Amino acid sequence: MAFTMKAAGVPVGQYRAKFSSWEASTHAEYGERVLFEFEVLDGKEKGNKATRFCSAKMTPKSALTKLARGLAGKSFEPGDEFDPDQFVGDEYLVIVEETDSGSTRVASVLKADADE
Q1: What is the reported pTM?
Q2: What is the mean pLDDT of residues 52-69?
Q3: Domain CATH number, residue 66
Q4: What digits encode the pLDDT tens for the residues 10-22?
Q5: What is the domain range of residue 38?
Q6: Which of 35, 68, 80, 101 is most exposed by smallest CB count within 10 Å?
Q7: Does residue 116 lie within any of the structural domains?
Q8: Total domains present in the chain
Q9: Distance (Å, rounded) from C-alpha 49 to C-alpha 92?
Q10: If phi over 0 gives left and psi between -120 and 50 gives alpha, with beta otherwise, what is residue 101?
Q11: Calpha distance 52→19 (Å, rounded)
């Protein structure tokens, strides 16, 4: 019998992707969480989803704030609000990294050029 290694998400790399959805949830151990999904638009991974779970807290160094800056293409100051719905359907350059557990996740996003 032979076994085939299955991918643990979209492989490490850079992808042109559409911000397809987000969902808030509560996890018993980790509290309020947000899942961001990006659909890969080109290449071998076309149609696959790159994702990122993060805390629902916007602090200066949080993953949520980092993703919000990338989605909005701007910095956030104390008191600023971020509404992910404004960016659903927009295109981005998505950087995917490997986690310590061997799966992958979205590390950062950059707004795609309007000229491309």
Answers
A1: 0.87
A2: 94
A3: 2.40.50
A4: 999 999 999 999 9
A5: 13-111
A6: 101
A7: no
A8: 1
A9: 13
A10: alpha
A11: 11
